């Protein structure tokens, strides 16, 4: 069995995700597997999705997340459902579908750069 599927099932077993979330992730793994087997995947220039959250005037990120690009594609539908409402509550109308498209393209570069006073959030592919 695919190692990504095993990890998803472990997360479900540990009750870290719901069965619905597990199903979404498993379907995403199947989609990626089909593209890889068909040989239709575009060459990837970026290898990691990086998320940085800075608070105050510090130069060191309070949150520093590095996710392999392949995993970020699997997690995107899960993340979208969790954060879209929260972003809208704070007044940020971000099209998460476009972000997901950019992630799927694999093109290296900045996706999101939000500054709110002294706080900052960066999402980019590197």
Q: What does it look like?
A:
- The two termini are 29 Å apart.
- The protein has a four-stranded antiparallel β-sheet.
- It has four helices and four strands.
- Helix content is 49%, strand content 22%.
- It has two domains: 41 residues; 84 residues, no CATH class.
- The longest helix is centred in the middle third of the chain and has 21 residues.
- The protein is globular and about 45 Å long.
- A hairpin with an 8-residue loop joins β1 and β2.
- It is an alpha+beta fold.
Tell me roughly what share of residues is in helical segments: 40-55%
**Main pleated-sheet profile:** 4 strands, antiparallel
Structural class computed from helices and strand pairing: alpha+beta
Strand order of the largest sheet: 2-1-4-3
Brief overview, please?
This protein is of the alpha+beta class. It has two domains: 1-41; 43-126, no CATH class. Helix content is 49%, strand content 22%.
């Amino acid at each position: 069995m695919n190692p990504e599927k095993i990890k998803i099932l472990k997360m479900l077993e540990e009750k870290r995700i719901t069965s619905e979330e597990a199903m979404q992730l498993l379907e995403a793994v199947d989609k990626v597997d089909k593209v890889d087997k068909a040989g239709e995947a575009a060459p990837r220039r970026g290898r990691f999705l990086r998320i940085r959250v800075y608070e105050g005037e510090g130069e060191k990120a309070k949150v520093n997340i590095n996710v392999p690009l392949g995993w970020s594609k699997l997690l995107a539908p899960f993340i979208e459902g969790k954060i879209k409402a929260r972003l809208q509550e704070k007044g940020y109308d971000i099209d998460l579908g476009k972000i997901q498209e950019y992630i799927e393209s694999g093109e290296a570069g900045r996706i999101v750069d939000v500054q709110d006073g002294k706080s900052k959030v960066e999402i980019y592919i590197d």
